[in-house]
TrEMBL record:
<dbReference type="InterPro" id="IPR029063">
    <property type="entry name" value="SAM-dependent_MTases_sf"/>
</dbReference>
<keyword id="KW-0489">Methyltransferase</keyword>
<feature type="compositionally biased region" description="Polar residues">
    <location>
        <begin position="30"/>
        <end position="42"/>
    </location>
</feature>
<feature type="region of interest" description="Disordered">
    <location>
        <begin position="1"/>
        <end position="54"/>
    </location>
</feature>
<feature type="compositionally biased region" description="Basic residues">
    <location>
        <begin position="1"/>
        <end position="16"/>
    </location>
</feature>
<keyword id="KW-0808">Transferase</keyword>
<dbReference type="GO" id="GO:0008168">
    <property type="term" value="F:methyltransferase activity"/>
</dbReference>
<protein>
    <submittedName>
        <fullName>S-adenosyl-L-methionine-dependent methyltransferases superfamily protein</fullName>
    </submittedName>
</protein>
<dbReference type="GO" id="GO:0032259">
    <property type="term" value="P:methylation"/>
</dbReference>
Length: 356
């Protein structure tokens, strides 16, 4: 392989989000010998994974794909730059999956609230049991998860969270607490209505959002231009009239337009990104995420998405058509590429940040 080919291959490897440890899969993964660390070097979650029969695909996804702390620092930076004058407190995470970002958002300031919206009820339920429970005592009262379509957000149904189970079990003798429950139900951020009993977003007086976000290329799940514009209009409607921001990321570039299989090795599992042949007419690709665990256990197609690969100008046009005042693009050369050393503005090696 020539120097140029090697460089191209290296760039492909790093073309995924947070992909500094990816490498192209060249061997039969069924025979992987995973690097298993000693138990003392494992985090609690990793130990949990090693102990359980098969770890949840959601836990594996959160570990390998997401980095909510980094996302939040960008959200704060963008809000201060483009709106300013106040602290952002109210976040909406669209296409939230397990709402990992939302729960992280709640952690560092007790005034913060979060709304998560997704089509996948299993992911939302997993969130209530595994993520919200780690926020602290008031976590459930500051987050509202809605099950539904981002194209019809107001019709989405509130997902029951853990404390509601307790509320339902109250007896008549506990009248005083029932009164408190009524009070809770009337507040904006408490997810305490039954989803089969009219508990839809339209009926909730939710705080206007300072920030709405759609991460991990989720807007690629929308395939039609009209859908994209419709979605962006709903976002604008949800944002505070005092000023707010919508932040999304986008998947694209030359490496996205052909078949590709990448993998990233973690201490106790291997994460595989499989990209199908690119459909140049529809501009679509299919992404499958697989997890290979130790003892040859595999979670094949743990997640699978059909993505339309929108271009930056298409996104800008749709945002403007939906009514957004300004659109800013932030780009980052993926860390570790040869070009980082030579390209103006990106010459800071591995700590490359997004640049406007
Ligand atoms: C690529 S995942 C992103 C998950 C999460 N936001 C993250 O950062 O990793 C896309 C998510 O969007 C959800 N989704 C796809 N189409 C949707 C729609 N029309 N309305 C609501 N959620 C949708 C899927 O269920 C899935 O959880």
């Amino acid at each position: 392989m020539g120097k140029r080919e090697k460089r191209q291959k290296h760039q492909q490897r790093n073309a995924r989000r947070g992909a500094c440890n990816y490498y192209e899969e060249e061997e039969d993964t069924s025979s992987y010998q995973l690097d298993l660390p000693t138990s003392s070097s494992l985090s609690d979650e990793e130990k949990e994974m090693n102990n359980s029969e098969t770890p949840s695909k959601f836990l594996l996804y959160q570990q390998s794909v997401q980095s909510p702390k980094g996302d939040i620092s960008y959200l704060l930076k963008f809000f201060l730059m483009y709106v300013g004058g106040r602290l952002p407190l109210h976040l909406q995470e669209d296409f939230c999956g397990t709402a990992f970002l939302s729960t992280e958002w709640l952690r560092s300031d007790s005034r913060r609230t979060a709304i998560g919206l997704d089509l996948d009820l299993e992911a939302l339920t997993w969130c209530t049991e595994n993520n919200i429970s780690k926020v602290g005592a008031d976590g459930y009262s500051r987050i509202s998860l809605f099950h539904g379509n981002v194209l019809q957000p107001l019709e989405s149904k509130l997902v029951k969270t853990e404390p509601q189970g307790l509320i339902r079990n109250l007896t008549l003798e506990e009248n005083k607490e029932c009164i408190e429950t009524d009070v809770l139900e009337s507040t904006a951020q408490v997810g305490s209505m039954d989803q089969t009993n009219g508990g839809i977003m339209r009926n909730f007086p939710l705080s206007a959002r300072d920030i709405v976000c759609a991460f991990n290329y989720s807007c690629c799940c929308l395939h039609k231009r009209a859908e994209l514009v419709c979605y962006f209009k709903h976002v604008l409607e949800a944002l505070s009239k005092k000023g707010g921001i919508f932040v999304m990321d986008l998947y694209g570039g030359t490496s996205s337009e052909h078949k590709l299989r990448l993998q990233r090795r973690f201490s106790n599992f291997t994460y595989i990104w499989e990209q199908a042949e690119f459909d140049i007419i529809e501009r679509k690709t299919r992404i499958s995420l697989h997890f290979h665990l130790k003892q040859q256990r595999k979670l094949r197609h743990a997640f699978s998405y059909s993505w339309r690969l929108w271009t930056l100008p298409e996104i800008r046009d749709c945002l403007e058509e939906a009514g957004f005042q300004t659109v800013h693009f932030w780009l980052r050369e993926m860390p570790g590429t040869e070009e980082n050393k030579t390209t103006d503005g990106f010459g800071v090696g591995r700590d490359v940040k997004y640049k406007r």
